Amino acid sequence: MVGLKEELLKSIWHAFTALDLDRSGKVSKSQLKASGGPAGVLSHNLCTVLNVPHDPVALEEHFRDDDEGPVSNQGYMPYLNKFILEKVQGNFDKVEFNRMCWTLCAKKNLSKSPLLISDEDAFKVWVIFNFLSEDKYPLIIVPEEIEYLLKKITEAMGAGWQQEQFDHYKIALNTSREGLSAWELIDLIGSGQFSKGMDRQTVSMAINEVFNELILDVLKQGYMLKKGHKRKNWMERWFVLKPNIISYYVSEDLKDKKGDIILDGNCCVEALPDKDGKKCLFLIKCLDKTFEISASDKKKKQEWIQAIQSTVNLLRAGSPPPHKEARQKRKELRQKLLAEQEELERQMKELQAANENKQKELETVRKQLEAAAARAAEEEKKRLQTQVELQDRFSLELEREKMVRQKMEEQVAQKSSELEQYLQRVRELEEMYKQLQEALEDEKQARQDEETVRKLQARLLEEETAKRAELEKWHLQQQQTIQMTEAEKQELENQRMMKEQALQVAMEQLKQLELERKEALEQYEEVKKKLETAANNTKSWKDKVAHHEGLIRLIEPGSKNPHLITNWGPAAFTEAELEERQRSWKGKKATSE
After folding, report:
1. Where, if anywhere, are coiled coils annotated (predicted)?
2. Which of 17, 317, 329, 386 is the most buried (most CB within 10 A)?
3. What domains does the chain contain, in order, with CATH numbers?
4. Sign, CA torsion 509/510/514/520
5. pLDDT tens, residue by residue, 10-31
6. If we measure between CA atoms, which residue out of 54, 51, 50, 72 comes closest to residue 63?
C-alpha cells in the first residue's frame, strides 16, 4: 500500500499544483474549505475515481478557522492522507485516475508549441514520468531514468540507440539542473530529437508499448489460437500477459474481454506436439483448468512459454515485475552512488581542510624560518664585531703577558738560589726525621708487647667469671628441678588415691551387679519352671479337648514385650527395665565420683 500511495500522490501533486494560486503562491483557506472551490472539486473527483465515499463536511471541518495564518499548498496533504488515501482499497481504474489528474493539470502546463506526438501520447509520457520520477517534490526525472525511457522507446520503434547524442544532451543538462519536469520530458520526446526519421504512428506505437509494459504491467501481448473448453473449437484471441493473470480478448482494442487465466506459483506451462492439424502448441496448467494454445510460429511459441514461465517463477519467489524490480535497483544504485559521492565530497572537504591547515602550517613555518634567518644574520654580525673586539683585546693582553713574563723570569732566578738553600735545609731535616722515626718505632713495639700481656690477663679473668656464672646457673636449675619433682610426685600421689577410690567404688558396684544378676537368674529359673509346668498342663488339656471335640485350635496369649537374650539365656527383664537400671547405675557412679 505504501508504493501505491506514493504513485497516487505524484499524480495528485500535479493536479493540486495546477489549482488557482494567489500571488503568494498559496491556496487560500476559502478555496480549501469550500466544497465548490478548486480543492473541493479535486477532492470530490478523487473520491469518485478511487471509489472512496466523499465527505464534504470533513473537508470544512479539517480547514476550520483558527489563528495559524494562511494555509500553504502542503496543508492539503494531511486531509488527503486521512480522508482519502487511507481509505483506498486498490479497486479502481489507474488509467482513469491518472486521466482525471492529467485533465486538471495538462491545460495549464502543456506546451503551446506543436509537438510530434498526440495528446494521448503526451498523457502516457506524463504517467510514465510519474512512475520513473524521484520520490521527492517538486517531481523531476533524473538523466539515468531519461536514458532508460528513451532507450525503451527507441527499441520499441526498432531504431538504433544514439549513445553519443544522448551523452552530449546529458552533459548540457547536468550543467544547468538535476533533471527534467514532466512537461519538459514531454517537450523532449515530442520534439523528435531522439526519434528522427520516424513517423508519428511509429512513435505513438512505441510510447504505447512502453506505457503498457511500465504502467499497465503488460509483460507480453499478441494474437494466438485458443481451444475452447466446451465446443473444443479453435478461436483467435488477443492475449495480454500481466504479472498474475493472462487476459484474452476478441481483438487488440481490448473492448470485448472473453476470459482470464489466473496465474499463481502452482501453474506450469508445457510444450505440446502438433496434433489435429494445429502447430506450435503449448499447454497452461492451473489448479482447476488447463488451456491449450497455438502460437503463429515456433519463435512466438518459445517466447510465450518463456514469458509465462518467468511470470510463474516470479510469483513463486514473491518478486515484483521485472521493470519494477529494475527501477528499484536503479534507484538503489543511484542512492548508493549518491552516498559514495557525498562520502567522497566529505573526504575531499576534509582533505581540503587538512591541506589548508598544512598550508597555514607551512606559511607559519616559512615565517618562522625567515625570522630565524634574520636573527641568525644579526647574531652573525654581532659575532664578527665581538671577534674583532676580542682580537684587539687579545693583542693588548699578549703584550702585557710578555712584560709579566720577563718579570717572572727574574723572580724565578732569584727564587732558584733561595730554593737551593731551602733544599739543603730540608735534607738535614729529613735525616733528623729518620732518626726520630726509628726511636718512635722502638717505643711503639714496647707498648704493643705491654698491651698483649694486659689483654691476656683480661681474657683469663673473663673466662673465670663466665665459668663461675655458669656454675651458679646450674645450681639454680638443680634446685628448681628438685622443687618441680616434689610437686609432680605429690600430684601423682593424689591422682593415684582418687583412682584407687574410684576403683573401689567400681568394685562395689560390680559386686552389687553380680548379686542382682544372680537374683535375676534365680527368678528366671523359677519362672521357667512355672512356664514348663503350665505348658505341660496346657498340652495335656489340649490333647484331651482335641480327642473329645475334634480339630480345635486354641489361641494362646503371646508375650506383650519381646524378651532379651543374654549369654546365660533369656533375660528376666525387658529392654525398658534394663535402660532404667543403666540410668540408675550411672547416677550412683556420678555421685560416688
Report:
1. 323-544
2. 17
3. 1-109 (no CATH), 220-320 (2.30.29.30)
4. positive
5. 888 888 888 764 444 445 555 5
6. 72
